[in-house]
Structure formats: C-alpha cells, structure tokens
Amino acid sequence: MSYRAQVEDIRFIFNNIAPVEQLRATERFAEVSEDLSDAVLEGMGKLTEEVIYPTQRDGDLNGAYLENGVVRTSPGFKAAFDAIAEGGWVAVSGDQNYGGMGLPIAYTTAFNEMMSSSNMALGLCSMLTQGQIEALEHHGSEELKNLYLEKLISGEWTGTMNLTEPGAGSDVGALKSKAEPLEDGSYAVTGQKIYITWGDHDFGGNVCHLVLARLPDGAAGTKGISLFMVPKILLDEEGNMGAANDVKVVSLEHKLGIHGSPTAVMQFDGAKGWLVGEKHKGMAAMFTMMNNARLGVAAQGVGIAEGAYQKALDYAKEREQFGPIVNHADVRRMLIGMKADTFAARSIVMSCAVALDMATATGAPEWKARAALLTPIAKSFGTEVGIDVAEQGVQVHGGMGFIEETGAAQFSRDVRITAIYEGTNGIQAMDLVGRKMMDGGEAANILLDEIEADVEAARAAMPELAEPVWQATETLRESVEWLVSQTDMNTRFAGSVPFLMAFGRILGGYYHLKAALAEGGEGPRSKLARFYIRRLLPQHASYLEHARAGSDDLYAFSLEDLEA
To answer: Is 90 exceeded by the pLDDT of residue 159?
Structure first.
C-alpha cells in the first residue's frame, strides 16, 4: 500500500463545508490566501506520504523501549521528526513572534489528520508539543515564553502533559502530587504521573513537562491545583540546557497499539518547576491544552479511518475470490460506508476547527459557543468512526485481516485509545448534555436553525436528499427540547452517548448534502451523499429513542442482578 494524503478532500471541505474564506475576512487571518492554503496542504501531504508513512510499520513492530533509564525510539522516528521540525510543521498555528507559522488551527488539524493516517504514534509527539505551546502562549509568564516557546515551536524541544496518577484519572482533583515553594521563586515538585505520552525519547533536546500538582495551601479538589513547567534538563542563566532535573522514567507501558509512542510512568522527586498561570488555577491552564488535544484526537480518529479505508480498498481490488472482492455487494457496502463515514467525521472535525479559529479571530460569543458545542461531538464521533472504520477494514481483509503481516490490524489497535484518552467519549457526551446545554440549548438550536435554512434552500434542487435531512434535524431539535427540560442530570447522562452519536449522524447528513450541492448533484460526492443519507442517516432515530429513555431501567438492576 502507498499512502495518499487526503489533500483534495480537505481542500474541498475548506472551500465548501467549513469555508476558510470567512477566516480570510478577519484581520487576524487576512494573509491566509488560497495560494498559501494550497501550498501548505500540499507540503503536508508530501511530507506525510514520502517521509512519515514509511516509518509507520517499523513503529508498530519495533516499539519504543526503556534501556538503562534511556527511552529508545523506533527505527526512523528521529529522522522523521527532524523532518517535521525542519519544515516548521510542529507549530503550524504557533505564534509568529516565536517562529511559528501563525496559521489557523484548521491547518494544524489537517496536519494532525495526515500525521495520524501516516504514523499516529509519531504524530502524538508533535501533537502534545502543540498543546503545550498553546498553553504557554495563553498562560505562561513572559519569562517562560521567552525561555521555552521558540525551542518548542522549532521542534528542538518537545512537550508533554502530566495529569493522570494511579489514583486520579478522570477525577483529577484526587491527585497527590505536591509542589513546595523554594526561595528562588521556583517549586519542588514531587509525585508520580502515569500514561505520559512521549514522556521521554532519544531525539536530543529537552523534554518539557507540564505537571499538575497541589501547593501546600491548595484547597482539596480541582480548585486547589496548580500547573508547573518541569523540564527534564534545567536551564542556565542564558536559557541553555545544563544539569539534569530530578525527573525520571520509571517504566514504559506495554500497550494494545501505538507501540512507537513511548507511554511513560514519570517520577518527580523534588524536581524544580516554575508556575504556569496563577496559583490554584492550574486546571484552567491545563484545559487550554486539553481542548487543543481533544480536537487533535478527533483528527486522529479521522486519520486512522482514512488509512484503514485506503488499505482495505487496495486489498479489495487485488484479492481474488470469485473475481476481485471489490465487486462483491457486501464488500462494496463496507467500503462505501467507510468512505462516507470518514467524510462525515472529517467535515465535523474541520467545522469545529474553523469555529475555534473564528472565535479566536473575532472574539464573538456565538463562535465561542459553536466551537464549545462541536468539540465533544468532533472528539467522540470522529474517534468512534475511526474505530468502526478500522474494524471494517479488518473485515474487508477477511482472514488476512487477522494476520499481522497485512497491517490492517494495526489501524484497529492504534485507534482504540482515541475513545479513551483526553476525556473518554462517555465524558465528552456528558459534557455535551450537561455543561454545553446550560444555555438552555441555545447554541444547539442556532446550529439547527442554520442547517434547516440550508436544507430548505436545497429542496428544489435535491428533494430526495434534503427531505430526510430536514426531518432528522427536526427530530434532533425535539430531543434537544426534551433534554433541556430534564432537571435530573442522571436522566440526561443515561442517554448522552446515543444523543451525541445522533447529533454527529445528522451533522454528517447535512455536510454530505452540502457536498452534493457543491458538486451539482452529479458525481462521486453526490453518490456518496445518497448512500449516507439513505443508509446511515436513519440510525439517528434509534439513537434518539435511546437518548430519551431515561435512567430508571439502568438503575433497576441491583448488583446481584448484574452478577447473576
């Protein structure tokens, strides 16, 4: 298989589904011309096809390992990361004052998708660094920015995010890591963190850890947590690397997938750190990084879906069983479904990215609300699609999909984590029906109004596609009204995942309709829209029926019933 970066599909979405033209109308992104946009996407595609993809299989077969306290990375990873850094791709959206490209987050999202298709394990290193850059840009002191941003943006140094502890996962407030103030204004950070992606490596340069810990006067729970920059190597007065800090990798996790990405258990023993943001406000600073990462993980789901689809299609064209299996009806059902869902998820993710950019460029509350609404949908729907498409890819391969040599199973193993990290998909769904509906459903209804207006305008040209999308949108609106009327949050939470999946399904139908309209109703995108709207969109009805079922039947089961 030769990987083909989806430059054309992303360009189509930027022109017709989530138009970057509206970004060019803002002062902040006025210089992002169509020529620049095309050049950036082409550059990303060339890098991921020619340099990154060839390292993917070695990363899976020869994963990172710990040797005498040193993390050894997979063959070819250092050279590939150097190419990312030299091309300026680590910080596509980084501050230009520190060497970043200053492009919209939509282009970072496009890069993260292509990286995930070509080598998700390596892409995680740049993605975590991107998140740290954004956290420092928003919350770091001028001194910290001057010391770290240029090196992180250039890729000379890399960044991590240290939240989780053995007894504190989703319940971050239960963490035990502590920070003691020192006379020189720094802090001594002590504690253990687990699941630290790219916690160390042998690329050279510094590894910069953002660590959540509690000060002596920090209150219990999340309100008493602070955030600290804790570098692997301490800096001298000129900002150059000097002595080693009291930070070490205890072990690396043995994982289902992403073997090339070292997932470390980190030990901090009085390690010197510096406060990022205000005391006891660490979660606010960390959420900047986490929201960045959630969009990045959404792009990972889409990227893996794309890679799995391409591999399955190539195999189906070559595999002979009563003729090429690509001609069999059930194989076609799977392949077309994979392609249709990938486009739907990609459109949702890019729409979320553009909304974030518009919020940044304009400061408009409506764009902030739109981005906030779409983020949990993009993360969850994008990763669920990635998981399903990768699984379908194994099925298309038949028995050979279960054999590791084909590489089909790697996509399925690698993508599985995306539904878990950066907030599980269940937590994302709870956020959608809880925090994101605290406005009484206003942001959701504004989006539904826009969908229905566009669909109404499409009735004359494509009534057979517009009508089902309009009806589905109305059903979703009724479910939003029901949802916000429920004062018992457990009633909302019980159906939150199917509600989110229904929202994603309907957005997918809307974006497919827009694609068909942009194409003029004839052509491959229109055929794909018909498939999605006729065969996949109807799933929204069962999702919403489930969403409105409440929680009583879930709690009707005693523990004895579950054990019976």
So the answer is: yes
